[in-house]
Amino acid sequence: RGIEMFYLFFQGILCFQVLLFVVLYFITRKRDLLYYCLFLFFAAAYFFINAPYTFFGIPEDVVWNSVWYDYTNTPVIIIENLFYLLFLKAFYENISSDRIVTRILNFILWLIPIIIFLFLVLTLLNINKQFIFYTVKMIAVLPALLVAYIIIKRRPPFAQLVANGLICTVVGTTLTVLMIILGNYGVHHLFTENYPLFFIRLGILGDMIFYLAAILRKWHLQEKLLATEKLRS
Fold first, then answer.
1. For position 37, what pLDDT does the model report?
2. CA angle (177 as vertex; 120, 111 as ends), nearest 5
């Protein structure tokens, strides 16, 4: 019951954050905010699809065994992680410039169309596509670790909080993938059978909190600098 309540609370927070980042984007016109907003939007869609009983009272088996679920679930995961990668790239370009890191991010972004093509082929051939979930999640985790490492090492202004958020996402995603793998191998547990997405929700929640705190801190320090400059002039 507690986990179900957390799912409802988290989904409400997630939807609110989507609206908040839409407003922030129109105020600042920064690409990283737009990509992060779209990432949260597709994450919310993915969680709605995969918890139909919690949100709509529809039995999971009815949804998970339907044709539309088979055609929509994986593309939503791919698009969600595509926007997360675009967010990482845009945010990194704002704080630093490193050709090697940029090339790595660009290379990983080019893998997304290949994964989409692979999904279409496997769907037409009626072949299991579960491994695409693990592949996409790991593709998103590795750049997040790289960017977090660079932030911690170089300590650019305002970015330390973002690094903490990236670590939350990495840990939550890794634990969720682990729960799904254990469930597929017959390990019986509350999280492997019923709530494997619990940890990724915690990770995204931490990521949202730290990223928003970084934005507010940045604006606060910018206001102090402007006030100081006015006093000096």
1. 93
2. 40
**Is residue 227 packed enough to be buried (19+ CB in 10 Å), middle (13-18) or exposed (0-12)?**
exposed
- Helix 31-50, helix 198-232: angle, nearest 10: 160
- How many Å apart are CA 132 and CA 208, to the nearest integer? 25
Q: Which two tokens stand for residue 207?
A: 């990521």
* DSSP H/E element including 195: none
pLDDT digits over 166-221, tens only? 899 999 999 988 888 888 888 888 788 778 888 999 999 999 999 888 888 877 77
CA–chain centroid gap for 162, Å, is 13
- Tell me the two tokens of residue 174: 């890794």
**What stretch of H or E contains 194?**
none
Angle at 227 between CA 222 and CA 232, to 5 degrees: 125
Please name the residues in contact with 14: beta carbons below 8 A apart, sequence gap of 6 or more.
40, 43, 44, 47, 204, 208
Q: Which residue has the tokens 């339907």?
A: 66
- The secondary structure element, H or E, covering residue 104 is helix 99-124
